[in-house]
């Protein structure tokens, strides 16, 4: 099992029409940036939601991380736009 | 330390009173309340990460200033103009620490805590865009 | 603007609520409560001048920052540990202005408003001496 | 009539044993500093309360002023130690 759980929030969630999914990590996908590229390659709503120019943030296991951050099986990875609380 | 992420409103007076009576060494409580301006909105958040992110911000404030206790409450869900959104209250021996830690926590909340505002404007609902000014406010503490 | 110099305690929650509901353009209320630390004290003041000095400080804050409304309450008379001494609350559209104006008003109050604290320590009553740190805090705004 | 009303607060009030008095401005006393010297010259409790080394502040008509500030008949002049409120 090389599954990761992916969560989507705010405009990302709305654009792809789901708030979470579990996927098997494809071979060679070991960073947040690589996962983002993989999701973009699915085409359709994913292609625009994860477009290179889309301003996105990511968290791994509920810590905000940079695109180069490593991911591994069992992680919870989240994608969302820059935060606007407070 | 109290961190709460909740739908319900909060009571500033009661929260600051709880903080104030922790110790007779507390001489200063700085607090901040953020309110909805003009437009109804819905606040989405990332349950679990939100509390964790706020706790990390508070821990960082405690490492930088003399903070005796603090309370952070952030609401989510549907809010209307004038509703309270967020409370940050910091108790310290002296006012300089209380003010600095309170403003620091707010600035970091704005850029690091996973909340998203969707405003209900006349034309429909739209996600609020992050402000460069908020990034700058957070960066000045680095 | 509300300025009060009084013996009676005040209610932070009610004061901030009054400020907050003035306008739907208010997005931020920064407030500060100063408390008696450890030792009972009596606060003397200069009736008339006190209100005047506070009003001048508030006017200066309004000239420097975008302040939509503000409330300053300072108590005098006999106070015991943990009693509230002073409240400064500033409402603004944005948090940066609210925080800066609130801290400015407190720093100026400390050095320009005619109040004097006399502490009741074990050895008897003694007038509190002014702190160089308070002068420095006020000077950084110049 | 060349009277000024003088108010004393905190330790100054305690040291001289009164909270206010009305005096006729002596000839040549036209500033806060000169009034302070005049009060010091009274001797006794005034001499120590208004000693050169005593850290005092003054207000004229309820505005905090510098020692060089002018005073004139009818003014309310106050002397007090550095403030400690807030």
Task: Describe the largest sheet of chain B.
Answer: 4 strands, mixed
Relevant CATH superfamily of chain B: Molybdopterin biosynthesis MoaE subunit
Structural class of chain B: alpha+beta
Neighbour order of strands in the largest sheet of chain A: 2-1-5-3-4
Question: Approximately how much helix is present in the residues of chain B?
Answer: 25-40%
Q: From the structure provided, what is the oligomeric state, counting identical versus distinct chains?
A: heterotetramer
Strand order of the largest sheet of chain B: 1-4-6-2
User: Could you say which structural class the secondary elements and strand pairing of chain A correspond to?
Assistant: alpha+beta
Domain count of chain B, please report it. Answer: 1
User: How many domains is the backbone of chain A divided into?
Assistant: 1
Architecture (CATH level 2) name of chain A: Roll
Q: Quick check: average pLDDT of chain A?
A: 96
How large is the share of residues in beta strands of chain A? Answer: 25-35%
Order of helices and strands of chain A: EHEHHEEE
Low-confidence stretches of chain B: none
How are helices and strands ordered from N to C of chain B? Answer: EHEEHEEEHEEH
| Strand elements of chain A, count | 5
Number of helices of chain B: 4
Q: Quick summary of this structure?
A:
Chain A is an alpha+beta fold. Chain A is built from 3 helices and 5 strands, in the order E-H-E-H-H-E-E-E.
Provide structural commentary.
The complex is a heterotetramer, with 2 copies of chain A (86 residues) and 2 copies of chain B (142 residues). With 86 residues, chain A is of the alpha+beta class. Chain A has one domain (3-80): Ubiquitin-like (UB roll). Chain A contains 3 helices and 5 strands, in the order βαβααβββ. Chain A has helices at residues 10-16, 32-40, 44-49, and strands spanning 3-8, 20-24, 57-60, 63-65, 76-80. In chain A, strands 2-1-5-3-4 form a 5-stranded mixed β-sheet. In chain A, strand 3 and strand 4 (63-65) form a beta hairpin. The mean pLDDT of chain A is 96. In chain B, helix 2 (49-64) runs antiparallel to helix 3 (95-112) and helix 3 crosses helix 4 (132-139). With 142 residues, chain B is α+β, with helices and mostly antiparallel strands. In chain B, strands 1-4-6-2 form a 4-stranded mixed β-sheet, with helices on both faces. In chain B, strand 7 and strand 8 (124-127) form a beta hairpin. Chain B is 36% helix and 34% strand. Chain B has helices at residues 12-20, 49-64, 95-112, 132-139; strands at 2-6, 28-35, 41-45, 69-75, 77-79, 84-92, 115-121, 124-127. The two termini of chain B are 23 Å apart. Chain B has a single domain, classed as Molybdopterin biosynthesis MoaE subunit (Aldehyde Oxidoreductase, domain 3). At the B-C interface, helix 1, strand 2 and helix 3 of B face helix 1, strand 2 and helix 3 of C. Strand 2 of chain B pairs antiparallel with strand 2 (28-35) of chain C.
């Amino acid at each position: 099992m090389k599954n990761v759980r992916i969560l989507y929030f705010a405009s990302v969630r709305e654009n792809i029409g789901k708030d979470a999914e579990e996927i098997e990590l494809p071979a060679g996908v070991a960073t947040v940036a690589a996962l983002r590229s993989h999701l973009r390659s699915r085409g359709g709503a994913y292609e625009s939601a994860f477009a290179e120019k889309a301003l996105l943030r990511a968290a791994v296991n509920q810590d905000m991380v940079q695109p180069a951050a490593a991911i591994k099986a069992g992680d919870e990875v989240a994608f969302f736009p820059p935060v606007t609380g407070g | 330390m109290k961190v709460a992420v909740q739908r319900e409103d909060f009571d500033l007076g009661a929260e600051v009173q709880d903080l104030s009576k922790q110790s007779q060494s507390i001489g200063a409580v700085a607090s901040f309340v953020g309110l909805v301006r003009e437009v109804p909105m819905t606040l989405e958040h990332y349950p679990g990460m939100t509390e964790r992110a706020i706790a990390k911000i508070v821990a960082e404030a405690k490492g930088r200033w003399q903070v005796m206790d603090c309370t952070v409450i952030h609401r989510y869900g549907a809010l209307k103009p004038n509703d309270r959104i967020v409370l940050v209250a910091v108790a310290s021996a002296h006012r300089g620490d209380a003010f600095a830690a309170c403003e620091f926590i707010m600035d970091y909340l704005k850029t690091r805590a996973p909340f998203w505002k969707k405003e209900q404007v006349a034309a429909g609902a739209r996600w609020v865009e992050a402000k460069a000014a908020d990034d700058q406010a957070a960066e000045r503490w680095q």
